[in-house]
Amino acid sequence: MANILQRRLTNGIEHFRAITRIISAIALMRFWSIPLSELNYHVTRFILSAPDIRHLPSDTGIEVAFAGRSNAGKSSALNTLTNQKGLARTSKTPGRTQLINLFEVAEGKRLVDLPGYGYAEVPEEMKLKWQRALGEYLQKRQALKGLVILMDIRHPLKDLDQQMIQWAVESEIPVLLLLTKADKLASGARKAQLNMVKEASMAFMGDVQVEVFSSLKKIGVDKVRHKLNSWFSELEPAVEDQGTEA
After folding, report:
1. Is 39 exposed, middle or buried (0-12, 13-18, 19+ CB in 10 A)?
2. Is this structure's pTM higher than 0.85?
3. What share of residues in the chain are helix, strand, coil (percent, to 5)?
4. Residues 17 and 63 both lie in one domain
5. Are residues 115 and 16 in the same domain?
6. What does the pLDDT look like over 92-111, one tens digit per residue?
7. Summary mean pLDDT of the chain
8. Residue 205 and residue 108 share a domain
C-alpha cells in the first residue's frame, strides 16, 4: 500500500510539474508573440499633427519617436517602414517637418515624427519654437518608450545627435541609431561607418544600438521593424496590466 501511495504521489508531482511547464511555456509564447511581432505596418494611419504636447492625444499607450537632423530622412524612413509612399510628407527642402506628427500602427501603439533639428536656414524664431516643442515632448511625454535617431551615414554623430543620445541614455530610454542613405556608400565604406558608430556609441554606456538604412534600396527595413516589434512587445504586458487594474 505504501508503495502504491508513493507511486501516486510521485506521479502527481510529475503531473503538476508538467502542467507548470506548459503554463510557463504558454505565458512566454503570449509575451513574445503578442501583437507587435505580427503587426502589419502597411495599415499604419496618420492621426494628427500638433504644434506642442498640449495638442497631443491622451498620454497613454506606447510611442516610438523618430528624431534627427532636418536632412536625415525621417519622413522617407517612415514611409519605407510602413510601405506607404505618402504617409509622412517628404520635401526637397530640409526642415519642413514643423509639427509633431503621430501615426497609429495599432491600438495604443504609435510612431511619432518629431520636428527636425539643426537646420541653419530656418528663421531663428521658428527654430526656437521647434526646439521647445521637441524638448517638451522628449522630457514630458510618458508614452515615449523608444527613440530612433536618424543620421546621414556620411555625417554621423554631430553635436546635436550626441546630445540627443546622451539625453535618452540618462532618461533610460532605449535608442536605435539609424544610419540613413546607406546606398550613398559602397559596401566597404558602409561597413566601416557602421563599425565606427557602434564603437563610438559604447561611450554613452546605455541601451544604444546601431543599424544602417536606405529608403531607396530598402536596406535595413526588416531589422528596424524587428527592433520596433521588440520594443512594443517587451512593454505590452505592462499596458495590459494597467487595463486589468482599471
Report:
1. middle
2. no
3. 50, 20, 30
4. no
5. no
6. 555 556 789 999 999 999 99
7. 82
8. yes
